[in-house]
Amino acid sequence: MTLADVPATDTSTVRIEPIAGFLGAEISGVDLTEEQSPAAQQELRDALYEYKVLFLRDQPIDHAQQVRFTSIFGPVTDAHPLGYTDKSPEGFPQILEVDSRIYAARGGARRYSYANFWHQDITALINPPAVTVLRGELVPEVGGDTSWTDLVAAYESLPESLQRFLEGLYAENRFGGRERRWENNSEAETLTRETPIISEHPVVRVHPVTGKRLLAINPGFTSRIVGLSPRQSDRLLDLLFAEITNPAFTVRVRWTPNSVGVWDNRATAHQAPTDLDHLDVVRVLHRTTVEGDIPVGVDGQQSRSISGEPFRARA
Pick from 86, 116, 111, 107: which is nearest to 99 by CA? Predict the structure, then answer.
């Protein structure tokens, strides 16, 4: 789709401008301080599943309005399956505050995200979040971009023989993945020891909305390929991680004040900024997530829970 005005039956207009070859679009003609009409909501959902990452600029919304906007895409969960209630603003357990000032106060080191490596959100869960919304409140003037990659394009780039091989495999997902990336986060390490969350997902997942096949692995949470030796698993994961992080399949977006990013967490992986640790800047964003479904592979089989319960929205 090229730059287009999409009129709704109630006279509202959603304007879509693609920003990269495989994924990503800027959305205008929408005021998130107002409740969206059913027609506009459907346009936003359709745009999300086509472009996978949406950005809306100049949206000075509050916590309640962010939760309302997130609900367009499905039931809104609490902030995090590990709890993290002290990272939610009072009265809004659905919101996770990503605040560099909080990280510095606790850890003594400047950090701008709790996960600045390629990952999908919380694929240790049997039902990882379907959609993530992130709102920028305070963002640096330079640096601090987020990157996303298209997991459908990565799968489709593989030779058919490799696609067929991968479609019969499952991958274990846990906090830290194979690199134990959470070791420097003592809070997360303690929580995951006390309440481990581990799932086995199909390496190739069928998207429940679009029906497209995609690579459902990511360096942040995928720890091994089930049924392979450690050496074989590592070699295969090295190959797949290189494929999903191929720059050709990515989009990098700069945050501006009052910008809102929305992404399909099933069809993308993302990387928080890695270029700020040497800078004395503040970065504050607010995250909400939509309840996900249990992944299904090409053979129709669902993911398997090894430890932990589904993460559901409140009734």
Answer: 111
Q: What is the mean pLDDT of residues 283-296?
A: 96
Q: Does domain 4-307 have CATH number 3.60.130.10?
A: yes
In whole angstroms, give the CA distance from residue 297 to residue 223: 18
pLDDT > 70: percent of the chain:
86
Global pTM value: 0.90
Alpha-carbon gap, residue 226 to 203, rounded angstroms: 10
> Considering only CA atoms, which of 82, 69, 182 is closest in space to residue 134?
69
Chain mean position to CA 83: 18
Q: Which tokens sit at 104?
A: 């510095």
Q: Which helix (H) or strand (E) holds 25?
A: strand 25-28
Give the active site residues. Answer: 119, 121, 270, 287
Going from N- to C-terminal start, the domains of the chain cover 4-307
Question: Residue 85 burial (CB < 10 Å; 0-12/13-18/19+)?
Answer: exposed
Three-state DSSP at 132 gives: strand
Residue 158 predicted with pLDDT over 50 = yes
Taking the C-alpha atoms of residue 133 and residue 214, their distance in angstroms, rounded to an integer, is: 21
What is the predicted pLDDT for the residue at 1? Answer: 43
Question: Residue 290 corresponds to which tokens in the numbers above?
Answer: 């939509």
Cα–Cα distance, 301 to 297 (Å, whole number): 5
DSSP run (H or E) holding 44: helix 38-51
